[in-house]
Amino acid sequence: MLAYTFRRLLSAVPTVFIIVTLTFFMIRLAPGGPFDLERPLDPLIMANLNKAYNLDAPLWSQYLTYLGNLLRGDLGPSFTRRDFSVNDLFATGMPVSILLGSLALSLAVVLGTLLGAFAALRQNTPVDYTIVGLATFGITTPNFVVAPLLSLLFGVVLGWLPAGGWELGNPAFWILPVATLALPQVAVIARLVRGATIEALRSNHVRTARAYGLPTRVVVGVHALRAAMLPAVSYLGPTAAGLLTGSVVVETIFGIPGIGRYFVQGALGRDYTLVMGTVVVIAVFIIIFNLIVDLMYAWLDPRVRFD
Predict the structure, then answer these.
(1) I need a surface site. Which of 47, 73, 103, 231 has the fewest CB within 10 A?
(2) What is the band of 191 on the pLDDT scale with cuts at 50, 70, 90?
(3) Which helix or strand (DSSP H or E) is residue 59 part of?
(4) Distance between CA 85 and CA 101 in Å, rounded?
């Protein structure tokens, strides 16, 4: 397994390189620049800014400079937040996004697994139909609809929770963003676990376990549910990366200072380095979590082997 992990990490290097290269040139080809304003700057000031940020150099030179800085862990200065580097912004925004993403992911896995297994055990009953219907509604309802509704209901109308903002030491500010992030994932995981559990309950090894007289909780919890988690685990790889690196919609609506919100601000302000840094971080997270998912397969399914 160690050899497999090493090969996967080694193969991730060209993947990240391709992502960085494509993103760098695509964002530079977009119209506009970080210093383009409604009221144009004085040409001398514009020239000084371009020189200060190395934007007056040829594009290939800017690319090589960025790669060199990236290899040293330097994501560059922010063009729109002149007093901060991208590393500084991520140092403050990443813990917030990781906290929200971790809470949302944990809630989605636990609640989605329980609902999916419960629906599978009561297949074709009103309980099953209700869970499937709610899951379908949760999948088809986007975050930019759920977030304002939750904020309006619980923050404005009822006044139970803050409608927006962020305080790290106050869990009340976490509830609505976490719920908004978790609800679609709960729905997807519930559907995946339900279908996989129904299939697992009909498998030969589960029938054998029942024939030996094992309790239902052991048959479902140890034998059926372990096999049923494989589709959900496959789904959790990119999902975990997306949640832990911040949700663009949720962080923007609730005014949360995570890297998802920084990404939106960087894209609107043509902040090249901020957008590039966000893409690099998300790519690394996706690669790492996909590797973790592959390793978990061997634990969940003993038939899986790594050559």
Answers:
(1) 73
(2) confident
(3) helix 59-71
(4) 24
